[in-house]
Design a protein that fits this description.
Blueprint: H1 8-19, H2 23-36, E1 41-47, E2 53-58, H3 65-71, H4 97-104, E3 106-112, E4 119-125, E5 128-129, E6 133-135, E7 140-146, H5 162-179, E8 184-188, E9 195-197, H6 204-215, H7 217-222, E10 223-230, E11 233-240, E12 245-246, E13 252-256, E14 259-261, H8 264-273, E15 283-284, E16 286-291, E17 297-298, E18 309-310, H9 313-330, H10 340-347, H11 373-387, E19 394-395, H12 403-406, E20 412-417, E21 421-426, E22 429-434, H13 435-453, E23 458-468, H14 471-479, H15 481-485, E24 490-493, E25 498-505, H16 513-524, H17 533-547, H18 558-570, E26 584-588, H19 589-595
Parallel strand pairs: 1-8, 13-16
Antiparallel strand pairs: 1-2, 2-7, 3-4, 3-7, 4-5, 4-6, 8-9, 10-11, 11-16, 12-15, 13-14, 17-18, 19-20, 20-21, 21-22, 22-26, 23-25, 24-25
Helix pairs in contact: 1-4, 2-5, 8-9, 10-19, 13-17, 13-18, 14-16, 16-17
Length: about 600
């Protein structure tokens, strides 16, 4: 087949395919244009999930008649002063959005510049440009894109349902609204109730207000302000405490110079910073804003401008990790399971959660009566079962707690139940501590501190322990022997299918070395060379901490319980164990009073 030049209409549709993937892509491009125009208010209206109609109206600078005529031409832009494609200070710059939309839809632009006596309108349908005509409009611009993909019907079959497309539009506007809290946004459509986010004052407080409006009051309640700066690069924003997590990474909002992005480097940095706080199947909720010299980041990697490439990727990753770890450490005792309404309701008698108190579970509806004996007995048994936890394993109620202990953040130990949970009294409530999870975090932080200072001290086993493993696991252990030695675990291959353990960490005391080695071997099977050495070492530390901690089921003396509480208060990140589980739950006096209807 001979080489031939494609006609302009086909070229435009190919370009449109790169920029306009779905209705949400159109909304993104038009809203970004409005932001670049200096708008203070942006209104988005959709019909049919954006496929039938999208209208974006702003009160920005608008365009003159001459600018409007050029705006729908390929590679025409007002956002580049010269040919420097690295000095990008705007949301858009490629000059492809409007002509690409006009190539696959019916596009109507109406605009007015302050220097013009009236507005102008221009129509583009399927790539065919109409004539300019006067129009009545206040200062600003209104862009309407109707019958999306009518000029390329094959693309229509790839669209989802109207509701799904509308949700994608909603997510796009949400991200742009997070990036610019100084701009008021409204979003209306057939599929959902209208959304409105008023403009807020600049600064951290205004940003948190906008994030709370979009992500909800739960995020605002758990938000921790984070920030770091180095070599002209700044990372700031808010991260949720480990109490608030998601089952996926969709709750992580990342911005570079005001541009919403999805960057693997940044997502990996977020995951690494939370590695000590969350289980592997949970993901944090964060909103991070990176600001740096435009010449230090390439935003021209992808036509949709959702991906970026940093000149110094290591610096950005380090800043994100430092900002998040510093903020989380500052709020280290914020429990990963703060009680709130859910935990308080768990203590309520079953009747208080919507059951009919007048009705026994076994009684037929017609026999229900508040005064009947079966109903009263049934309710009483349900309540008794709720609180029937057996005798305390340790009970020091007869000894009045010292006032100085009561005033401490985690209070004074009062009892141990089920040989696992410590009950502590504070000045304004009570604390329930999981002794194994709490001690696990303490041991983990000790290992990290020892590793950073002088290395983990070892203890030589009088009789080396032989641990049988699969041949593949033996090879992995032998290959990682140097890394394990940094933690005081000295192993060597011992013939086929076994390893010999010669030394173990001194701070763990007497442990089951065989169980520790098998657990480490299982974790190593999940590693690859792409996993940073630091992360691999922290996996080892976490596993060792689990094996060296006070186990559930061990009866503690009163002094031991109080000593554990004091160590928790002095230990960073003591609100969670190194697997991300909560170490304690606090019930304030106000929560307890709500249980008994005192409030």
């Amino acid at each position: 087949m001979p080489v031939r030049q494609l006609p302009p209409a086909v070229v435009n549709r190919i370009a449109a395919g790169e920029v306009v993937e779905r209705p949400a892509s159109v909304v993104k491009e038009l809203v970004e244009n409005a932001i670049d125009a200096g708008a203070h208010r942006i209104d988005v209206l959709t019909e049919g999930g954006g496929q039938r109609r999208i209208t974006v109206t702003d009160d920005g600078a608008g365009m003159s008649r001459a600018d409007l005529a050029l705006a729908v031409e390929r590679h025409a832009t007002s956002k580049l002063d010269d040919e420097d494609l690295l000095g990008i200070h705007t949301m858009g710059f490629r000059g492809e959005a409007l002509p690409s939309i006009g190539a696959v839809a019916r596009l109507i632009l109406t605009t007015r510049h302050a220097s013009e006596p009236h507005g102008w309108t221009l129509t583009v349908a399927g790539g065919a440009k109409g004539t300019l005509a006067p129009a009545a409009i206040a200062r600003g611009t209104s862009v309407e894109a109707a019958d999306l993909f009518y000029a390329t019907p094959a693309r229509l079959k790839f669209l989802k349902t109207d509701r799904t497309e509308a949700e994608a539009i909603r997510e796009t506007v949400r991200r742009l609204a997070m990036a610019r809290p100084d701009i008021a946004f409204t979003l209306a459509g057939e599929e959902r109730a209208p959304l409105s986010w008023p403009a807020v004052l600049p600064g951290a407080a205004g940003r948190l207000t906008r994030l709370g409006d979009i992500l909800g009051p739960e995020f605002r309640a758990h938000a921790i302000e984070v920030g770091a700066e180095r070599d002209g690069a700044v990372v700031e924003g808010y991260a949720a405490a480990p109490a608030l997590t998601r089952a996926n990474a969709l709750g992580q909002y990342l911005f570079v110079n005001g541009r919403p992005v999805r960057d693997r480097l940044m997502l990996g940095a977020v995951r690494g910073a939370y590695a000590d706080y969350l289980p592997r199947d949970r993901h944090p909720v964060v909103a991070l804003f990176v600001t740096l010299d435009p010449h230090e980041v390439d935003v021209n990697v992808h036509p949709a401008k959702t991906e970026v490439r940093f000149r110094n990727a290591g610096l950005i990753r380090a800043l994100i990790v430092h900002a998040l770890k510093d903020g989380l450490a500052r709020e280290g005792r914020r429990s990963a399971a703060e009680p709130g309404d859910a935990a308080v309701m768990a203590f309520r008698p079953q009747g208080a959660r919507g059951w009919d108190w007048r009705r026994s579970p076994a009684a037929p509806p017609q026999a229900a009566s508040f005064a009947t004996a079966p109903a009263a007995a049934g309710f009483a048994e349900a309540v008794q079962d709720r609180f029937d936890v057996g005798a305390p394993a340790a009970d020091i109620r007869m000894e009045p707690p010292a006032q100085e202990l009561i005033e401490r953040p985690l209070g004074a130990a009062r009892a141990q139940i089920h040989d696992t949970y410590i009950l502590s009294q504070t000045r304004d409530g009570l604390v329930i501590v999981d002794q194994h999870a709490a001690h696990e975090r303490i041991v983990y932080e000790r290992i990290k501190a020892a590793l950073a200072e002088t290395g983990v001290a070892r203890q030589i086993l009088l009789i080396p322990e032989i641990v049988e493993l699969d041949d593949a696991l033996v090879e992995r252990m032998a290959a990682r022997a140097d890394e394990l030695a940094q933690f005081g675990v000295v192993v060597e291959a011992f013939g086929p299918g076994a390893v010999m353990v010669r030394e173990t960490p001194a701070l763990l005391g007497e442990i089951n070395a065989a169980a520790l080695i098998r657990n480490l071997a299982e974790h190593m099977a999940e590693w690859d060379e792409a996993l940073p050495l630091e992360r691999r070492l922290m996996h080892v530390a976490a596993t060792m901490a689990c094996h060296g901690s006070v186990r559930a089921g061990r009866r503690l003396k009163p002094d031991e319980m109080n000593a554990l509480l004091r160590e928790m208060e002095a230990t960073p990140n003591s609100g969670q164990c190194n697997h991300g589980r909560p170490t304690y739950v606090e019930l304030r006096l106000s929560d307890i009073e709500r249980l008994f209807a005192r409030r």
